[in-house]
Amino acid sequence: MGIYLNQVGYLTGARKVATVTEAGTYQVLDAQTKQVVCMASAKAKGFDAAAGEDAYVVDFTVLSKPGTYVMVGRGGQKSHPFEVSDKPYVKLHRDLQKALYFQRCGCELLPEHAGVYTHKACHTKPVILVEDYIAGTIKPQTFDMCGGWHDAGDFGRYSTAAAVALAHILYAYEFFPESFTDSLQIPESGNGMPDILNECLYELEWLIKMQREDGGVYHKLTAFNHAPFLMPEEDQDPFMLYPVSSMAVADYAAIMALASNVYAEYRPEFAKKALENAKKAWTWLERNPYVGFHNPKGSNTGEYDDVCDKDERFWAACEMAKVDPENAEKYIETAKKLFAEVSGIDFGWTDVSALGSMAVMTADEGVFSDQFTAKVSATVFAEADRLLEIQKQSGYGVAMLPEDYVWGSNMVGCNRGMLFILCAMGSEGAKVEEYKEAALAQLHYLLGRNAIDYSYVTGNGEHAFKNPHNRPTACDGIEDPMPGWVSGGPFKTPVDEIAVKMIPKGTAPMKCFIDHVDSYSTNEITIYWNSPAIFMTAFFMK
Ligand code: 9MR
Ligand code: 9MR
Ligand code: ZN
Fold first, then answer.
1. How far apart are the C-alpha atoms of 302 and 261, rounded to whole Å?
2. What is the pTM of this model?
3. Is the confidence at residue 6, as pLDDT, over 90?
4. Which residue of 307, 368, 382, 451 has the fewest CB atoms within a 10 Å radius of its CB?
5. Which residue's C-alpha comes closest to atom 21 of ligand 1?
6. Among 380, 378, 289, 278, which residue's Cα sits nearest to residue 331?
7. How many whole angstroms from 390 Cα to the centroid of ligand 1?
């Protein structure tokens, strides 16, 4: 018995929907005065396979007066409070961005920026090559690799994960710059450049260090094994660089090309360097075939293994075509050839090809031929329309099938929200609204309109998850987690011990989640689960 809705809130002019598990009439009350402001009866949607039970939808779009409300059912069911306003996502949008600051590695987090979540500088020592570590070389070659964001609940820093997170955010900035302000209270606030660009620069400057002289890019920088639960500055394990992969090189080329454009206005010197580095990476790609990545024996840090680098090369080619006009022809030729072999519709770290599609669809006129752009667009729109159908069938209005509840399912949901937004940006008339509503529905799911009643963003929503798998959260002795973290979310076949033990076999996919600090396969946080959420909130902040 439940009423599930967006616990943060709804835009005044947008469609407002909740999902309930029982038929009947539902009332919306003003949270303060308890006066009934509207009523609606629940419409049966039938059995929802992802949730494993019947679902009913309550549409209360008639409610358009700003305020704070609750929804109640005849049997005494009560929803969490929610806001209706023109700007319900201001705090959410800020928290999602600020969370990245808390991942900074290699610098002290001071109270004036971090509040209670301070810690000393971590992982500042020079690092070695994993080959030297394994060989026990007496005097290993050392590198300064200080900086960047911790990837997730672990302290590793991984090139492909970094590039993808940065891409979501830099595109959000490029498309919706007015949604980004100087209010993050980070060390660089007030320096004349929008805070989100400052925060991303912290990561980009580290990523630059991941490139070798020959243009190759190390796949990752981690310890040999995951650290136990301790504060980052207490972690004394040696960090090491793992071999180059072609995915890392291609993603690096793509993100440096994009950054060279985004930073041209505020940091022309950096933009120039980024472009040179992107070209160096491209040259490496021309000279080398697919190079995969697997951990050497005994090492257990994240792999981000990927059997195909065509989507990464496609994305790189699309970005390079935009910023290196002299050589545009060869990039476009590569992009065209590879487009036939990639999906073109995914924004995740495994398949990045939608980032290439996004680059093509939003490029200045004349960069790509109309014919090629139309082909790419058609693929993206076809996917969006397939997803719209899934939304229509879903009792939760979410574009996710039972099989989509994988490790990090909240990224699947958010990435599909990004795809809808890309389509809204490229549409006209009624279609714009349709795709916007579809994107909002993905956000509603994330913020509480789901079968287990969680807001998957810490500090946002009355029943937000509280125990992310994140080492500082586990160790800092502070009751509340840092606000603004997106949880990985339900995983239909969890693999961590606590989730396997606590989630009964046969649990419906949408409910395979546990808000426990040890549950790394359902409740970790990562930079690239926050980034698509930032893209969405940036769009709805406009
Ligand atoms: O904390 C680690 C997390 O970031 C990873 O996603 C996860 C899977 O690689 O591993 C976590 O670390 C666990 C390790 O793999 C096994 N021992 C327990 C560790 C922390 O719970
Ligand atoms: O997000 C990754 C997920 O798609 C994979 O299924 C999973 C297992 O390979 O790894 C996830 O990435 C983790 C990374 O390996 C280490 N840092 C934490 C990441 C999030 O759990
Ligand atoms: Zn660190």
1. 30
2. 0.98
3. yes
4. 307
5. 518
6. 278
7. 33
